[in-house]
């Protein structure tokens, strides 16, 4: 195995900062890649990293970032597509992981931000804080290219693989409890219109 890509478990992963990781991701996107941000703090930090027409911000629909990104990836196989989701939301829609594995969109990467709580609703614990390991679950669903990011440099390495190599990929990261600096745009018609127009531009 490449020593830049250690196969670790959740307890071995460094606890990192969601906003910093999203900025690292966005800085590497130069080919109109689509990014679907899950509800709450994930899309707040996505918006804070720099509003792009290729960003789609989920508002009030828990667990749908991966299904929507999956649809975009299937519809536009030449466009790299990223889903950004929290641990609580992906636990709500675990069935989508086996669907992604079965359809096998090679241009899709899923990033799970895991802090072990439903942060935006008051910090109630999710099962990743006790018994569930998202990477192990993803592998069990058939997503063989699933990894815990060991630290920031490993995260960047995995993102680069997601941009250049056939997927689907799942990158899970442990994050701290920091709140975002602000909120994303709360205008659903504008978000939809901007994203549709961006997706109409060939890559």
Q: Which descriptors apply to this entry?
A:
single chain; 203 residues; alpha/beta; Rossmann fold; two-stranded antiparallel ribbon
Which blocks of ≥5 consecutive residues have pLDDT under 50? none
* Whole-number mean pLDDT: 95
Profile the largest sheet. 7 strands, parallel
Structural domains: how many: 1
Q: In CATH terms, what is the fold-level topology?
A: Rossmann fold
What is the tally of helical segments? 8
Quaternary state, please? single chain
Overall radius of gyration:
15 Å
CATH class: Alpha Beta
> Which overall shape is indicated by the principal axes computed on the Cα atoms?
globular
Please render the helix and strand layout as text.
Blueprint lengths: L14 E2 L1 H9 L7 E4 L3 H8 L6 E3 L7 H11 L5 E6 H6 L2 H9 L4 E7 L2 E2 L5 E2 L8 H7 L5 E3 L3 H13 L4 E7 L12 H12 L4
Parallel strand pairs: 1-9, 2-3, 2-4, 4-5, 5-9, 8-9
Antiparallel strand pairs: 6-7
Helix pairs in contact: 1-2, 3-5
Describe the protein's architecture and organization:
Helix content is 37%, strand content 18%. The protein has 203 residues and is α/β, with parallel strands linked by helices. The protein has a single domain, classed as 3-Layer(aba) Sandwich (Rossmann fold). The strands form 2 sheets. Strands 1, 2, 3, 4, 5, 8 and 9 form a 7-stranded parallel sheet that branches. Helix 1 (18-26) packs across helix 2 and helix 3 packs parallel to helix 5 (95-103).
Give the structure's gist in a few sentences.
This protein has 203 residues and is α/β, with parallel strands linked by helices. The chain has eight helices and nine strands. Helix 3 packs parallel to helix 5 (95-103).
